[in-house]
């Protein structure tokens, strides 16, 4: 194995690219909400005071001159974190930019996103990371955390400079959109990631087993005459990653789990204390491949929608915490790119503005999870895995806060999205809950009533 040239002592801590702080940071009084802080187990009706951008002691008495948010009937949660987002900048700004993607996130209740590195050029070196962080400082309205590629150009051949990426501030590495097929390359990547205790995120797809596939291999692919992308192509890489995590001691998160067998493999590995983790997406728990009946390309994503048995396994995995993360895989594509034959359309759908409502519909209304359990997968769990100084309402913490109305019924209208793209399978859906305020470092960035606050 090649020698690591970077000395750990030289490495600076990973910092988010946060919006430029206003000075002094704002103070705020949030009155009478249901405070749910999964990090501490707190769940009670109480007031929350923010002093200069940080959560105050629970005993703090608010100064009566503070701005007040009446939170009666609302949930007051740590700012939501989506750890799987494609912002498309640089190189894909007809689909999304850091400015529009973070506005979509804020309007969905998110105070932090983790940007995937499959930009153009890919984020496989410190220069691209520096560019993305600078653009985020200038244009993002919420926190943007960055990932770096596992391999140069995401080609799966030569390792990216993982030490330099870490030094540049990435909080995880991934080739998302691609999957490293060479097991020896993946093993060496994990050896490096282990040295920096960086989380590795993997898009689990065996290319030979899924070659040419555009939807789940099964009854519907046969009926529709479309090439199948079978579960086994995901399961095989999940099994590989479990073995490599055991060998190297590196932490691996399996992205966008879609298959029942993958859930079982990860559950069994966790019982043996292997450091593997998993995330689930709204579309895989809300939809099945039967939705593709009309060849609508807004139902085409990677991995594909699967069957009822997989949906049930994902829900069971969320319920028993085999799957600790909920995220969107927000993957914007311009209309002209999606308005083609199903087989030719790009994979992926937008998700930031609908995911909280979809999760509430499937998981809360479906009695799979309660609010504290669901919010843990959107706050403290991603914060801990990525080692972010976020995801809690503990006194002294950065005041990233999301207010949610758990009884706000609304209908999805894609024409009203803040995202530059409209590729959603959920247009017209009735959803039971919605974020009402998105607060970053004590500043209300967006509210349902007043829209965006310009900084
Ligand atoms: Zn992916
Ligand atoms: Zn992705």
Indicate the multimeric state. Answer: single chain
Specify the biggest β-sheet. Answer: 9 strands, mixed
* List of distinct ligands in this structure: zinc ion
CATH class membership of the domain at 79-391: Alpha Beta
Describe this structure in words.
The structure is a single chain. The chain is an alpha/beta fold and 455 residues long. The chain has a domain at 79-391: Metal-dependent hydrolases (TIM Barrel, Alpha-Beta Barrel). Helix content is 27%, strand content 20%. It is built from 13 helices and 21 strands. The chain has helices at residues 98-107, 126-139, 162-167, 183-196, 219-224, 232-248, 260-271, 282-286, 308-319, 335-338, 355-364, 371-376, 380-386; strands at 28-37, 42-51, 54-55, 68-70, 75-78, 80-85, 110-115, 143-148, 172-174, 199-202, 215-216, 228-229, 252-254, 276-280, 325-326, 401-405, 410-411, 430-431, 434-440, 443-447, 451-452. Strands 1, 2, 3, 4, 5, 16, 19, 20 and 21 form a 9-stranded mixed β-sheet that branches. It has an 8-stranded parallel β-sheet with strand order 6-7-8-9-10-13-14-15, sandwiched between helices. α2 (126-139) links the parallel β7 (110-115) and β8 (143-148). α4 packs across α6 (232-248) and α7 (260-271) runs parallel beside α9 (308-319). The termini are far apart. One zinc ion is lined by residues 84, 86, 116, 176, 329, 331. One zinc ion binds at residues 176-177, 203, 255-256, 302.
